[in-house]
Amino acid sequence: VELNEKNLEPLLNELLFKLLESDVALSVAEEVIDEVKNDLLGKRVERGREKIEVLVRDSLKKALMAMLDKKPRPDLISLAKAAKGDPLVVLFLGPNGHGKTTTIAKLAYHLLKNGISVVLACSDTFRAGAEEQLEIHAKRLGVKVIKHRYGADPAAVAYDAVIHAKSKGISVVLIDTAGRMQTNKNLMEELRKIARVVKPDLKILVVDALTGNDAVEQATVFDREVGVDAIILTKADADARGGAALSISKVLNKPVIYIGTGQAYEDLLPFDPEWFIKRVLA
Amino acid sequence: RLRESLTSALRDLLKAPFVDKRVLEETIRSIQRALLIADVNVHLVLSISNRIRERALKESVPPGFSRKEVVLRVIYEELVKLLGGEEPPDISIPTGKGYALMLVGIQGSGKTTTAAKLAWFYKRKGLKTALVCADTYRPGAYEQLAQLADKINVPIYGYKEAGSKDPLKISIKGVKFFKEKGYDLIIVDTAGRHKDEKSLMNEIMEINEKVRPDEVMLVIDATIGQQAKTQAEAFHKAVKVGSIFITKLDGTAKGGGALSAVAVTGAKVKFIGVGEKIEDIEPFNPPNFVSRLLG
Ligand SMILES: Nc1nc2c(ncn2[C@@H]2O[C@H](COP(=O)(O)OP(=O)(O)OP(=O)(O)O)[C@@H](O)[C@H]2O)c(=O)[nH]1
Ligand SMILES: Nc1nc2c(ncn2[C@@H]2O[C@H](COP(=O)(O)OP(=O)(O)OP(=O)(O)O)[C@@H](O)[C@H]2O)c(=O)[nH]1
Ligand SMILES: [Mg+2]
Ligand SMILES: [Mg+2]
């Protein structure tokens, strides 16, 4: 039988639902299903729903893999080892409460375990308890945190941290910033200023895996206003299907490099596209 | 005013010369898209569509109205019904009772900030308000709430005052401490947790049983997607959720997940958070929420 709109529709609708239930944004889910449809239209296949189903699933897996398996995948360990002389400067940005500070602590732990020195910059000079929170992580990890008083210029803190890293021969600077809504023009300018002053090697967007359709809005505007090189998806342990990973990858054409799987320092894993695909098609 | 707010989802309906099955289906499709983009649960979107479909063409058109207006009213009613009606919720707190209000929710949803906002809100209404920090996991949790409490001149009780790092002990002693001092409202901030963290869910169950708060408020991030339903269900199973607070509605997220949270807990949304400052709190308004939902 030849695959056409009519015999594909029920299966494609089913898959669209699966994607939506996995928190893939509506616009992205529709694009994915369209790609699958165009890939399969006109193909000849043996009769039987199961045969068509296998073909549709395989086509979907292929489409998802292509969207998620973005190369190159920046690996902090190899980038830090390759950066001879100057420290690797990494800027973290993203919406309020999505896990930036905790993720920075996890990455610092990961780098230290691999013999790479780290200094933290507390460029969140706004939120109550932000400095104390990062300070406690720094103490636990045995690393220095550069911080100014509350209300100070976040760019100045970041700058001081880079100077400190250069003078002390520290390999990596991880810059924590305050959470913000991408709709706040002043806060977007604040991030741009930090980026202008320290010229980060990597700008990482940190997003909660439980986020729904807003992930597309957030990612698009953060990338447009400041620039995003890679994504870290947090709270994947909260039974999140993690559709935001697909939405953001597709919309920014940038890789998800890690997922947060808990609140402890070890709870950070390299992102595996197969993991996501398995969950979505579960 | 409802017409303006529903226009983007219902442009074609309003342009149509009359409403027939085809126009209705197109209208329902655009409503579905708006609701899905707003993060309303997929199954809930389908059941809302069915309800609208059943009612829209069958309901009688009152004299002086058009079928179009009937359809608009049906859509509005079905959505507002999910929120428990269009009346703003009762947010009064009885005085002189040492009313204990416990905040629960997923990590990062905004509980600590919300605790301070609620304290500020009710203090302005003349209630003697206090804060209890029962989060001993998150680094700097006490300092965060203490700095906020200091800004609004509200007393705080935490691990320092209790001489213990046990959240259960702190909650019990903290509520008792302020009750005995005649405080009207005691807000208890707890650590973030989600349904798959067994020991943390057991902990909040135990705190709820031993402290017996007068109200448990679930704090939900407006950006949460399809998982809002199962997470709210789990919280409701563990502790009886009596009210809901939706945070971060100052962003672009529509908060559609909250509809499911309301549906599975039977609780009403009492307030929304519209910014990071302590005064960025508003009592919930169902019609405003619905019109924002439909974009
Ligand atoms: N379960 C789980 N919790 C996480 C994960 N990552 C972060 N968290 C928790 O999420 C909450 C918020 O984390 P933060 O690191 O403070 O988030 P943030 O983005 O820095 O927040 P702001 O600076 O206020 O914008 C904390 O309770 C963290 O422990 C994760 O992968 N899994
Ligand atoms: N823009 C905006 N930010 C908010 C709102 N409510 C809270 N936040 C921010 O969200 C982030 C997380 O808030 P917290 O109060 O630390 O969240 P929490 O639920 O106590 O976090 P945990 O204790 O780690 O579970 C902070 O950056 C807050 O400033 C809101 O209504 N709007
Ligand atoms: Mg932070
Ligand atoms: Mg908190």
What does this structure look like?
The complex is a heterodimer of chains A (282) and B (295). Chain A has eleven helices and eight strands. With 282 residues, chain A is of the alpha/beta class. In chain A, helix 9 (214-225) links the parallel strand 5 (202-208) and strand 6. In chain A, helix 2 (26-40) packs across helix 3 (49-68), helix 7 packs parallel to helix 8 (185-198) and helix 9 (214-225) packs parallel to helix 10. The longest helix of chain A is centred in the N-terminal third of the chain and has 20 residues, at 49-68. The radius of gyration of chain A is 21 Å and the shape is elongated. The model of chain A has no long low-confidence stretch (mean pLDDT 94). Chain B is α/β, with parallel strands linked by helices and 295 residues long. Chain B is built from twelve helices and eight strands. In chain B, helix 5 packs parallel to helix 6 (141-151). The two termini of chain B are 14 Å apart. The model of chain B is unreliable at 1-5 (pLDDT under 50). The chains are: A alpha/beta (282), B alpha/beta (295). At the A-B interface, helix 1, helix 6 and helix 9 of A face helix 2 and helix 6 of B. One magnesium ion binds next to helix 5 of chain A.
Bound molecules: guanosine-5'-triphosphate, magnesium ion
Radius of gyration of chain B: 21 Å
* Uncertain stretches of chain A: none
- Termini distance of chain A? 28 Å
Q: Major sheet of chain B: size, sense and barrel closure?
A: 8 strands, mixed
Strand order of the largest sheet of chain B: 3-2-4-1-5-6-7-8
Binned strand content of chain A = 5-15%
Look at the structure and give the mean pLDDT of chain A.
Answer: 94
Order of helices and strands of chain B: HHHHEHEHEHHEHEHEHEEH
DSSP strand content of chain B: 5-15%
Helix content of chain A: 40-55%
Strands side by side in the biggest sheet of chain A = 3-2-4-1-5-6-7-8
Q: Count the strands of chain A?
A: 8
